[in-house]
Amino acid sequence: MVVLAVLAGLAAGCSTEYTEGTSAPPARPDTSLDAARTKLRLVQQDPCYTSRDLAQQWPVCGRWEEEVRTTASAAADARPGDREITDPAAAVEAGHAAFVRAGCRAGASADPGACVTALAETRTAVTRLATGIASAG
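The structure corresponding to this sequence follows.
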């Protein structure tokens, strides 16, 4: 009985009077062009983008491909009417789809040449996307 009284007293002391309006809104991904620009700078520093030897690099680029895809999508969502962004974003998606289709995400594929080609396609699209985002200001 005493425990119930203590719990009731604690619950009564937990009113929302002092906490209303102090909670931050739920975190949401930033889909602005600035956020995409920042993410793009980061993916352009990754060895999957910078490596000269794609035949050696592609097996570890599955996560990079996913990151680039979401970054391109965010950029296109931020500027849906800007073809200097949406066209390269679509090319990133196409490169990513080729990478997935060839079975490259897991780092092993029956056709490593297709993985190298798909990674090169994605990298070229990332370069075009970076140019489009830079021109968007």
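The helical segments are 2-12, 33-43, 47-50, 54-57, 62-78, 83-101, 112-136.
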